[in-house]
Write a structure and sequence with these properties.
2 copies of one chain form a homodimer.
Chain A lengths: L7 H12 L7 H19 L7 E6 L3 H15 L3 E5 L7 H12 L4 E2 L4 H6 L3 E5 L13 H10 L4 E4 L14 E2 L5 E2 L6 E5 L12 E5 L5 H6 L13 E4 L6
Parallel strand pairs in A: 1-2, 1-4, 2-3, 4-5, 5-8, 8-9
Antiparallel strand pairs in A: 6-7, 9-10
Helix pairs in contact in A: 2-3, 3-4
């Protein structure tokens, strides 16, 4: 049975079901597990000995929250993360996650500090846009995506490479002024709960995270999820997505 | 530097600090990570091929919550957990964790169902009493501890073997009627955040979980924590506790 690639609507519905009264998960729980899986995927792709300096780029929404959690776990995995978080989300949860990271001494930089942080990084975690993204790309992320695309630093993207369509996949992008924004091509991708339509033709290293999806939910959405190994929170997918 | 064994007061203070405004953790986050580490310790001690049937005994407090989380992760690790939860805590969190487990089809039994569940188990997770326990042992856990002690099933205890003094260690116990309660001797122990005074002379397999303790907190409490391997949430301690 082939793994299912889901669209934006199914991705939203799965999240809503998990956090509904019936699903009973809190966002704190799910974000903790999602962020932990992102950190594990990075650690399994880029060894700490060669890639200790990780620039974690966090967007304003839930995916930015996953990035904040991942940065904290990367610190505990002996990496030296730096967080770029130019548009902190208003939710109390994001503020707490940011504080947890600051309590570990993880540097948090703004757009002014971004270029030097990118220059000093061994690898970038892209937790900017998730499955709710719609173009055009809003500032400051237009310049950030172009800088990432033009950089030689390897990128691990969370859920869908930022700027790619969650269903359309790799696409040409513009900012709100109609200026071109470069498209990133991450070396590594970690899909959360199930891979998205837009990653169907992605050919890099591909992880799946979200070892919390209830069996009956996976069955109803016909996700055909692979088995995770051992006690890991991630499983590597074959490039084709065929299992 | 030797690992520090902490007393009840330090254990309580560490928990309070983590969840204070300064520490910024929610109980949902910490319980998720603690329960995941318990599930990992069990999986690393009792392989699923020989010990798939796990009876997770949950007490009325936070340690019972850790057990509920662990049962859910054990299910995702391909174990067949059963939850014994005779005195569900009143907190909304416990109700949600129980619902998450029920949503996976994990059986939940009461005291009437306990003997058959113990009989059918390959291994027991003891998440009954944590570092706030004070004797005597209240019903129905007096009979439960005696049944566990008299059973030949291997036990993994969470934080401190239930009934042991968090500082005093292995001790003779009575129930509220002054009747003797048997003392359990778990094959495996997982200490959370730091080992407790009462486990100093524990000689079984000993794991440490809680890969979220901030460095400065560990330093202030002189915990001298060991390094965790790879992306695991647990690290095995030498029997003596010396590192």
């Amino acid at each position: 049975m082939a793994l299912r690639y889901i669209g934006q609507k199914a991705a939203q519905q799965i999240d809503e079901e998990l956090m509904s009264a019936a699903g009973a998960f809190s966002i704190d729980q799910l974000m903790e597990l999602a962020g932990l899986s992102c950190a594990q995927a990075l650690a399994k792709s880029f060894p700490v000995k060669t890639h200790a300096r990780v620039l974690v780029c966090c967007g304003p929404g839930n995916q930015g929250g996953d990035g904040l959690v991942a940065a904290r776990h990367l610190h505990h995995f002996s990496y030296n993360p730096t967080i770029y978080y130019p548009k902190p989300g208003g939710k109390d949860l994001y503020q707490r996650l940011l504080k947890q990271a600051r309590n570990l001494g993880i540097p948090v930089v703004d757009t002014e500090g971004f270029p030097a942080s990118l220059e000093g990084a061994d690898v970038v975690m892209d937790a900017i846009f998730g499955f709710s993204f719609h173009p055009p790309v809003r500032a400051p992320f237009d310049k950030v995506l172009t800088a990432l695309a033009e950089s030689s630093k390897p990128i691990l993207s969370v859920d869908i490479p930022s700027g790619w369509g969650v269903e359309e996949g790799r696409q040409r992008l513009t900012n709100t002024q109609g200026e071109e924004v470069a498209t990133i091509d991450p070396e590594v991708l970690i899909s959360l709960t199930a891979p998205k339509e837009g990653s169907r033709n992605y050919t890099g290293k591909h992880w799946l995270g979200g070892r919390f999806v209830p069996d009956d939910l996976a069955k109803r959405y016909e996700l055909n999820l692979p088995e995770y190994p051992g006690v890991d929170q991630v499983v590597e997918l074959p490039p084709s997505g065929k299992l």
